[in-house]
């Protein structure tokens, strides 16, 4: 049995939660490897919606091991609230175990305050941050002043590191932004309370993963956001603060890259983006509004409306390359039902060059381009009851076939509705 990485091929919001939930039945371990509670994975099981921000989507399955890896930045309050909410709703199976890496970094109140203060002072040059403190937490990690989960559990070490951070952050907040100073003792008392609540879940998760691999268990590695929000390969600077591509599944969980076998890229049947940044296929018209309404395109974390547009295959091709994607899972195909004509972006055209394979590196260059489209006929038949590929209308199959050709990798799953069962499975990546 293979170990499988799941990543988004666009700007996030591709429907990874449903796919991870679907694949979780074939894996014994589900591990989240990056991001924080700026992510929101929406699951619909038996008509009931559940949104997870930190806990891996596999938590709804019994007899699983769910891991929050060292590459994730953890807001302890959010983690505790998620655990308690799942337990209160009877959605935390008794035989499923949850572990949090002792090396994961924590999000502190001053991270959120810095995040919001910066965005408020950017005067029209906003990045579109969720304000959850994700970026500042990763900054402290790289600056080697971050407070990890293991530090939080050590009272004296936590107090020492907190004092140094509060002194620095208060200087920054009060002198540069004119914000009120943060209070060290209040944070200390609050977070020591959190420490005792999360202590039972804290472990050396790298070691747990190694043990599970040696036992022949299959692991599903779950990413957040999408490839084009990657800090290295995304549409910089309109990106997140972590590496969202498949290679980070290794670094973000503490296992070697030889343990990664298959990479499934989640691709929405059209394109959406939440927040700021270039979006060449965006539709500010009736079709864009229709995609937004029918697809219920609201951010699971922020509630913000997502910008909607035609499927951009330049984005998908680049994602296939940088993440080594071996198969595509197409989501929300049903949202396109009823559109007479569909368009696929197959390249970007600037005054001097055509970009069919990669996204130009700067916002100015990208914004100077125009999308090059192919048109295809749509379909009107309701596809939500389709469970085999040949049950789809011929034009829907043609659309998928063209997408497959342009991406250069096979389509292995098609989602035709929000429910867990509303899915066409063409190949099981765990059997590769």
UniProtKB/TrEMBL annotation:
Pathway: Purine metabolism; AMP biosynthesis via de novo pathway; AMP from IMP: step 1/2
Any single GO BP term: IMP metabolic process
Catalytic site positions: 13 (proton acceptor), 41 (proton donor), 141
Annotated binding of IMP, by residue: 13-16, 38-41, 130, 144, 225, 240, 304
Residues binding substrate, per UniProt: 300-306
Protein name: Adenylosuccinate synthetase
Top EC class for this record: ligase
EC number assigned by the record: 6.3.4.4
Organism: Syntrophus gentianae
HAMAP family tied to this protein: Adenylosucc_synth
Gene this protein is translated from: purA
Gene Ontology cellular component list: cytoplasm
Swiss-Prot/TrEMBL cofactor(s): Mg(2+)
Function: Plays an important role in the de novo pathway of purine nucleotide biosynthesis. Catalyzes the first committed step in the biosynthesis of AMP from IMP.
Similarity field: Belongs to the adenylosuccinate synthetase family.
GO molecular function: adenylosuccinate synthase activity; GTP binding; magnesium ion binding
NCBIfam families associated with the record: PRK01117.1, purA
Subunit structure: Homodimer.
